[in-house]
Amino acid sequence: MYLPSATESAVEKENTINKEVHRKKREKQKQDNCMATVDQKVTIDCPWSIYSTIIALTFCLPFNAKHSLLSAGKRKYVQVCVQNLSELCFQLSNNSLKNFAECTDLQLVPLNLESQQVIYSKQSIFFVWELKWTKEHPLSLQCLFSVSFRPATSEEQSFTLKPFTYEFQVENFFTLYHVKTEIFPPLGAEYCKTGSLCSLEVSITRLADLSEVDRDEALTESD
Questions:
Q1: pTM for this structure?
Q2: Source organism's superkingdom (predicted)?
Q3: With 50 as the cut, is the pLDDT of residue 10 above it?
């Protein structure tokens, strides 16, 4: 998203330190917006001139996204976290997650009930999909997350912005271990009470063999 600088006056344009003033304004704008920025340069060549004109553009990244794979028993979920990096509030809508892998029996069931959400400055919003398959799940998932956004303030609703997209891949998401925990009251007591010493029992069951990569990275028996 490109945020242009304020228009300079005619006096500033005629000033010999115009470039320095413009640079300081651009740096101040970056600090005010507090967005992650990407600086690009565009070179313009004219056929009737031997000189090239270089224009500096600063693009602001309003969001940052990351994904994680969650498991609960035999059920699996894909979670995408979207973080607002700017000082602005945005209206999010039409979120989707598509799988480009050649797997017809795999479904991504969305668990997000609200179609539109407001994401405030420095806030994170989570989107979750449940993986459902009829046969064996694929070895990898090539996913593309997309969500439409626009400024939440009424005076800026006329902005037309392209959807924010985030592409990621998940491989070898087999469930290797099943972890179960349970807390028991002291011997002779019926319930756990504050201040009493209770025991915690953790049961770890291996459900699948380790792959060659996981086996190389696994801890040794002595560790």
A1: 0.65
A2: Eukaryota
A3: no
CATH number for the domain formed by residue range(s) 62-171 = 2.60.40.1230
Distance CA 102, CA 99 (A): 8
List the chain domain ranges. 62-171, 177-218
Map 40-105 to HEC letters: EEEEEECCCCCCEEEEEEEEEECEEEEEEEEEECCEEEEEEEEEECCCCCEEEEEEEEEECCCCCC
In the chain, what percentage of residues exceed pLDDT 90? 30
CA distance 133 to 112: 20
Q: How far apart are CA 27 and CA 8, in angstroms?
A: 15
Under the banding of pLDDT at 50, 70 and 90, the label for residue 158 is: low
CA proximity to 164, closest of 81, 52, 77, 55: 81
Query: Are 104 and 83 contacting, i.e. CB atoms less than 8 angstroms apart?
Result: no
Q: Using CA atoms, how far apart are residues 38 and 60, in angstroms rounded to an integer?
A: 6
Residue 173 backbone phi and psi in degrees, to 5: -95, 45
Distance CA 178, CA 207 (A): 7
Of 33, 52, 32, 31, nearest to 43 (Cα)? 52
Cα distance between residue 204 and residue 133, in whole Å: 25
3-state class of 114 per DSSP? coil
Residue type, 154: S
